Amino acid sequence: MDMETSLEEQIEIANPQHPHCATVLLVDTSGSMAGDKIRQLNDGIRFFREDVAGDDLARKRVEVAVVSFGGSVDVVQDFSSIDDFTPPEMQADGGTPMGAAILQGIDMLRTRKQAYKEMGTDYYRPWVFLITDGEPTDMKAGDELWSKVVEAVHGGERDREFLFFAVGVEPADMGVLAKIAPPERSPLQLRPGRFAEMFAWLSKSQRQVSASRVGDHVPLVDPTGPEGWAEIETI
Amino acid sequence: MIASTAPLTKLAPGRSGRPSALAVSVAGPGHIVEGRECEDASGCDIVGSHVLVAVSDGLGSVPRGGEGAELAVAASLRAGREFIAETVLFDLDELVWEMTIGARRALEAATADPRELACTLIVCAGHGTAVATAHIGDGAVVGAHSEDLFVVSTPGHSEYVNEVEHLGQKNWLSALRISIRDPVSGFAAFTDGLQRAALKRIEDRWTPFAGFLDPLFQHFTSRDDHEQLRKEIERLLSGARLSEHSEDDKSLAFGLLGDDRR
After folding, report:
1. Which domain holds residue A97?
2. Deepest of A28, A78, A158, B47, by most Cβ within 10 A of its Cβ?
3. Of the candidates B162, B197, B247, which has its C-beta nearest A124's C-beta?
4. How many other CB atoms are found less than 10 A from the CB of residue A36?
5. Cross-chain Cβ contact B241/A124 below 8 Å
């Protein structure tokens, strides 16, 4: 061993990659989102990308995927780092296959977690973030797909596989959304025109989570506060 | 404590045959930016021919985690010294058990709710050719013997990187893991801030990473001057290479067993 060489120069790092923090965005691009809503949604996702990229640590740790559901379910962006993420310019069209989109997103998360395990990459509990202005057109309460989706969401949350957030945009049926969302986390109703604030909150939350250390409880800003972007229906 | 002047094999007992130990903790870059004190603690002692080591990581989720780590380390070493002084014949696993009980009692004595002092804990006791560890939470202990490196105690299981079990929790006993390994020439115990540097993890299988650990073990066995060695380890733990990969506080403790069998 060369005594003149510092320890820092001698060592190698076993796992140079940062722990990863995966979020899948499930976004409603059905016909009813046409106009201002789809424009704000696209703008919001672009803002989210820039805001996370501006944080040195979060840029290395946050991974994002986008699944759209409008007529069909499309993986617009598979999981990628923020640097490799090109925000899509989505168009609004067709029905609302929300059930299939939720299952697709959860399946992608499971695949991603398995890849992390195989690569030996540490990771945080992933997020599913659903944004919709309608009700599902591919399932109804009590049918086979509905049961499968509700069990996947509620079971996944219960088993701590992921955190599931549901956001309803006017005129979303919040009653239906409340049945799909996990009992532990009521759906949030977006205040009109607050897409930008919602994505700023999502970015801030992801930056907080990705900087958390062992044992940290991450106190997320309450999105339903007076200056927040959301409301929770109590009726 | 006396460092050995061993030849630069992976690890060999010192020519003096006497055991030695060293423990270093530094604040992580994340804590420095936030103006927080180092919330890791570490310590070591040589009691007769026994090597005692403790490292602890105070949890960031509670305001007194760092205080808990300091209490746990100091109390575990004190309990170890007292047990050795008062007991004629004992096994090493009994010794690390007593050290852990001492640490938990210190938390209970300091607060009505030990969760306020939440911290991980690793205690190690080495003697002859064996080492025993008691471990709650993450961090790990790697042993060395002849040309081999091996994990003596793995990080506790948790799927997500920001979750951990700790000494302050109510069911702390169910989280306690005691291991014993023989033969061992020396060992390194470290908190989670060094986990990704020192261990490979594929699925749930942990293996030591020689690229990180070999230079450290060799450095430890080749230095007589522990104060100089301490400074070098502090520089390493605070340096850019490790800070790039972990924002967390970092603790590293070594124990080198003697070659006598008293």
Report:
1. 17-211
2. A28
3. B162
4. 11
5. no
The pTM of this model reads 0.83
Helix (H) or strand (E) holding A200: helix A195-210
Contacts of A10 in chain B (CB under 8 A): 215, 219
Kindly list the residues from chain B whose CB atom is less than 8 angstroms away from the CB atom of residue A211: 30, 247
Domain extent listing, chain B: 20-256
Domain total of chain A: 1
A101, part of any domain: yes
Contact A213 B162 (CB under 8 A): yes
- CA dist B10 and B7 (Å) reads 9
Per-residue pLDDT of chain A (235 residues; tens, 9 = 90+): 445 578 899 999 998 888 899 999 999 999 999 999 999 999 999 999 998 998 888 888 899 999 999 999 999 999 999 999 999 999 999 999 999 999 999 999 999 999 998 888 889 899 999 999 989 999 999 999 999 999 999 999 999 999 999 999 988 999 999 999 999 888 999 988 888 888 888 888 888 777 766 555 566 777 877 677 777 654 3
Q: Which two tokens stand for residue A76?
A: 């617009």
- In A, minimum Cα distance to B139 occurs at A214
Q: Is residue A24 part of a domain?
A: yes
For residue A67, the domain's CATH number is: 3.40.50.410
End-to-end CA distance of chain A: 72
Q: How many CA atoms lie within 13 A of A210 on its CB side?
A: 28
> Which residues of chain B have a CB within 8 Å of the CB of A123?
160-161
Question: Domain B20-256 adopts which CATH fold?
Answer: Phosphatase 2c; domain 1 (3.60.40)
